[in-house]
From TrEMBL:
It comes from Halopelagius fulvigenes. It comes from the Archaea. Coiled coil: none annotated. The keyword Transmembrane applies. This is Type II secretion system protein.
Length: 576
């Protein structure tokens, strides 16, 4: 349902919807979300599919609860089945809305860049239509695509593309409306006043981003603390009191324990994480790096081989710690190694992009000052390459070399097939290169626009750092809990519970607790689930749900969590 085209989700939804022929009502948010996602399924199909999905889910839960806990009351099993069915219906109905919210959040992270590109074009030529076209041409992503559609519809219409674009997106980002109004006002302003109006337009969108993130950071601490307490601390602490509970006459069936720790609690963490993620107002996403990038050549083979090696190491290493630990270690090391190895080349490209962007503002400032003094853009780029070190300077030097060898213009030197940015998927850097290409045509008058853009990039980086700093206490705690704290506590708790069970057995002559193997595997699986889920949440809050970044971080977290769990169990077994 969340993808365009005849996707599998759409086909399944249509099949389910056929079993519910009665009329249904559809909310505006669902219709709007499906339209934003470009889904082929309409709102009625999704609502009907949600109602029908409740039936197989309820039946499955009822059968499973009967097989796993036949002694439990029938009313309890029926209540559990009905609850599962209602939850399935709600999940189907809200999935498109949540998916659209996540994509919209990521798209809004590009607002400052898009407004900045439009503003720099307005400095060169105060024409809103051309500024909007330039902003779409030099960017990508949902926000640029949306503006491009408004540009097409605005041809021959009285309302400008920027106005209709701001009307569409301002409900989710109010600062955009004020920023666009200042952009349009600058078109009719005098030269000096135009520059001030454009500066205020950029300040408006940056201040809006800062305020939105500050409000979110202040409200997210309470829910994440609750998730930390009830999803990590309390469940793991209760494992240690199981032997004492059995000794006091309180029994917990093995099937119920496995269900709670390996089904119910992970679903609760998933629901809480989704609730938090869809409420983030703006995401500051990393550059998109896919498997089709020229520097990503290994394909799935790298991940497969690493996963097989991880399974082997985990099986042997886990067996050395405890006989029951082999499957847990094999799963954790295998999946973690596979994800980390598969996404490592993409992470390496992303680091390269980040290094190139790190001194982009300095490079534009130096080029702009030289152009303002009368130096040609081509010469200014060569001079700046000598003054800027690191990856940014190398990129400028590569562009200058391409221009000399191929005898092409500034645009081709940066953005052409063999340009310096051919393997750098950075909309921000490509937008800066497009500005330099425009400055090469405008000459000396464009120097001030390049300098102003450098100032804007510096402010944008400052706002991004501040936004991430405001969330760092939350995201850092989640990441450390996922990779280290939770598995350490889990391993030590299992060792303590196992020791207490052995003591009870020696005193009473009969087992009074869950078998250590069941306890270790079940709690270990929950610790690995937490490692993956909390890492996804931490990354999503920090940078948005970028597939390659999430996959790489989850792989590293699983490797660390598996090792920590085994080490904690082995160490605690020696102490207790």
């Amino acid at each position: 349902m969340a993808a365009s085209g005849d996707s599998t989700a759409t086909a399944v939804a249509r099949q389910l919807a056929r079993a519910y022929p009665w009329p249904v009502s559809v909310g505006d948010d669902l219709r709007r979300s499906l339209a934003f996602l470009g889904s082929d399924a309409d709102g009625e199909t999704v609502v009907r599919a949600g109602y029908v999905a409740a039936v197989p889910i309820s039946v499955s839960v009822l059968v499973a609860s009967t097989l796993l806990a036949p002694a439990s009351p029938v009313v309890t099993r029926l209540l559990l089945a009905v609850t599962a069915g209602l939850a399935a219906t709600h999940a189907v109905h809200r999935l498109p809305v949540g998916t659209a919210a996540l994509r919209r959040t990521r798209a809004l992270g590009e607002t400052a860049d898009l407004v900045g590109r439009a503003a720099l074009r307005m400095r060169l030529e105060p024409t809103p239509e051309r500024a909007a076209a330039f902003a779409t041409r030099t960017g990508d992503g949902p926000l640029s695509e949306s503006l491009q559609s408004h540009v097409r519809r605005a041809r021959g219409a009285p309302e400008s593309a920027l106005e209709s674009f701001a009307e569409e997106w301002s409900p989710w980002f109010p600062a955009l409306d004020r920023s666009v109004s200042l952009l349009l006002t600058s078109a009719d302003a005098a030269e000096g006043e135009r520059s001030r109006s454009l500066d205020r337009a950029l300040e408006a969108v940056l201040d809006g981003t800062h305020d939105e993130m500050a409000d979110f950071a202040s409200t997210v601490r309470g829910p994440t603390t609750a998730l930390y307490a009830f999803g990590v601390l309390l469940p793991l602490a209760l494992v240690g009191v199981l032997p004492a509970a059995r000794a006091a006459g309180l029994t917990l069936p093995t099937s119920a324990f496995v269900f709670v720790y390996n089904a119910f609690l992970p679903l609760v963490v998933v629901a809480a994480s989704a609730w938090l993620l869809v409420r983030r107002p703006v995401a500051l996403p990393p550059p998109r790096v896919g498997g089709d990038h020229p520097d990503v050549t290994a394909g799935p083979r790298r991940g497969l081989l690493a996963g097989l090696a991880g399974v082997g190491v985990g099986w042997v290493g886990g067996g050395a710690v405890a006989t029951w630990a082999s499957p847990v270690a094999a799963a954790g090391f295998g999946l973690g190694a596979s994800l980390a190895a598969h996404y490592y080349p993409m992470a390496r490209v992303r680091r390269r992009v980040r290094d190139v962007e790190s001194r982009l503002d300095d490079a534009l400032y130096l080029v702009g000052r030289r152009v303002d003094d009368g130096t040609a853009v081509e010469t200014a780029v060569e001079d700046a390459a000598e003054d800027i070190d690191g990856a940014t300077g190398e990129m400028l030097s590569d562009a200058a070399g391409v221009r000399r060898r191929l005898r092409v213009g500034v645009r081709e030197a940066f953005l052409g097939e063999y340009g310096a940015l051919a393997g750098v998927p950075s909309p921000r850097t490509r937008g800066a290169a497009a500005l330099l290409a425009a400055a090469a045509s405008e000459g000396r008058p464009a120097g001030g626009a390049v300098v102003a853009t450098a100032d804007h990039l510096r402010e944008l980086r400052r706002v991004e750092r501040e936004a991430r700093r405001q969330l760092s206490s939350v995201t850092g705690t989640l990441a450390n809990t996922a990779a280290f704290f939770a598995p350490l506590v889990a391993g030590a708790t299992v060792a303590m519970a196992a020791r207490m069970a052995e003591t009870d057995l020696s005193l009473s002559g009969e087992a009074t607790a869950l078998p250590t193997a069941t306890l270790g595997v079940s709690v270990g699986a929950y610790a690995l689930c937490l490692a993956g889920l909390l890492t996804v949440l931490s990354t999503g809050l920090d940078r948005g749900l970028d597939r390659t970044l999430v996959g790489y971080r989850v792989g590293l977290a699983l490797l660390a969590a598996t090792g920590a769990y085994l080490a904690a169990f082995a160490g605690a077994s020696l102490l207790f």
